[in-house]
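We treat protein structure as text, and this decision shapes the records that our systems exchange. We quote a single record here, exactly as it is kept in our systems:
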Amino acid sequence: MKKVLVINGANLNMLGIREPELYGKSDYKALKKYIEEEAAFLGLTVEVAQSNHEGEIVELIQRALGVFDGIIINAGGYTHTSVVILDALKAVALPTVEVHLTDIYSRDEFRRFSYISLYAEKTVAGFGFEGYKRALEYLKEKI
């Protein structure tokens, strides 16, 4: 069975609390359950992790080498600032899909650039939780 690591970054633990008009009213626990159920339906093994710390996200990516077949990442605000997360993704060279709950391309100017998109094979933005399903479907076909 193919294994996918799903990494959620800064502030995703605040889903349902932080700007519910943008991110919805469902909490992080509901997101994690959704991802796990969709992965199981697709016949994938998934591990879901969340961290507010850039270095911990880098370590999660590095530990994925030789363990996982692909990565889905929603780095939160680190999307727009983190060259080190980009470098970690390049280093492990696993198929990667970037996910964003909101459409980052229609938001603030600073949110429109993604370092992660410089490596990710695909970006899914603006579909809420369903974006993770789309990412899982893509990786199932890819890996």
Summary: The chain has a mean pLDDT of 95. Residues 3-142 form a domain with the Rossmann fold fold (CATH 3.40.50.9100).
